[in-house]
Amino acid sequence: MMSEIEKLKKGLDYCFADKEVISVKENAVIQCEIYNNIDPTDYEKRYSQLKRMLGEVGDNVSIEKNFNCDNGKNIFIGSNFLANYNVTILDVNKVHIGNDVMIGPNTIITTVGHPISPMGRRQKLAVTDPVKIGNDVWIGGNVTVLPGVTIGNNVVIGAGAVVNRDIPDNSLAVGVPAIVIKTIENDLE
Predict the structure, then answer these.
(1) Which of 56, 64, 68 lies closest to 26, judged by CA?
(2) Domains of the chain with bracketed CATH
(3) Residue 114 catalytic?
């Protein structure tokens, strides 16, 4: 029989009230607290803490204060990345973020959800799906990216959008739910 942490790692429904699962989250909370309390002008120390707490961190990565995550080791960030204030990444499953990505303030990227059934919620079950964000992406402020979503390359997500489905390359998507309203020229090619 699999433990709850093994179920979580395999992407199966798992109990989020399990002691091992809770200890992973508690460690992430501690690591985020350490990061958020580093002098914001001490770029070297902040970068070192990000490298310690996240799965992978490219060059020139900056995350402003009040960053929160569920695991940390499931976040993989490319180079030239900026996350503004109050960004939360619920990385129970993997979150891959490409190069040259900007994320606006108060944005939530989540890989975890809960059953619609009240019995499942009473059993403290959670379900997960990974999130992938391509290169040259700008996610505006107050955006929510839901589990299982892939955002392509050269994409802009308008402020306040809720991204509940894949967004193709070279797109501007806005709204609740986010829909593509325009094709964006890729002037890098």
Answers:
(1) 68
(2) 4-183 (2.160.10.10)
(3) yes
